Amino acid sequence: MRVAPLNRAITLEEVTEAEKRVELGETLLAETRVRIYDRLRNGLDVREAHATLLLLEQTQALRVADFDRLRRELAELR
């Protein structure tokens, strides 16, 4: 059957892209945490930065969940 190899190739590509999104998200989270720390250290208001961090964390949780789902799908295609 030709469908399974094609589905596997597409899913593998999706897993690769999802992994890149997770890695980028981790970088964004780390950079945002550094900015918040720097602002706190300088006595600046961090409320807006903290709200942004919370949104980034929620988005990252969705990215990770998508990545995990795609990996499970890929495993099922073996």
Walkthrough of the structure:
The chain is mainly alpha-helical and 78 residues long. It has one domain (3-76). The protein has 2 helices and no strands. Helix 1 (3-41) runs antiparallel to helix 2. It is rod-shaped and about 55 Å long. 3% of the residues are buried. The model has no long low-confidence stretch (mean pLDDT 93).
What percent of the residues sit in helical stretches (DSSP H or I)? over 70%
Counting DSSP H or I runs of 4 or more residues, the number of helices is 2
- Order of helices and strands, N to C? HH
Largest sheet: none
> What is the radius of gyration?
18 Å
What is the compact description of this entry?
The chain has 2 helices and no strands. It is mainly alpha-helical and 78 residues long. It has one domain (3-76).
Which features characterize this protein?
2 helices; rod-shaped
What layout of secondary structure does this protein have?
Layout: H1 3-41, H2 47-76
